[in-house]
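Q: Given only this backbone (69 positions), what sequence would you predict?
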């Protein structure tokens, strides 16, 4: 078993690697991320819950044409 440990960014506490899903990285402006974390916390949700919910909604609709103006 690996001794590698991961940090849960929004709680700043160690957590074991569960291996359930791959870890992803995204770039998000600090102010937007902070506001999203605050709202998620107020709703009793994690940022993972929020992101996965919106990604599922996004992929469930047909692609839209991008405006090329």
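A: Predicted residues:
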């Amino acid at each position: 078993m690996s001794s590698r440990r991961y940090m849960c960014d929004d709680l700043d506490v160690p957590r074991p690697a569960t291996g359930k899903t791959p870890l992803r990285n995204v770039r998000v402006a600090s102010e937007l991320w902070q506001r999203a974390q605050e709202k998620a916390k107020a709703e009793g949700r994690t940022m993972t819950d929020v992101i996965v919910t919106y990604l599922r909604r996004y992929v469930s609709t047909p692609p839209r044409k991008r405006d090329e103006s």
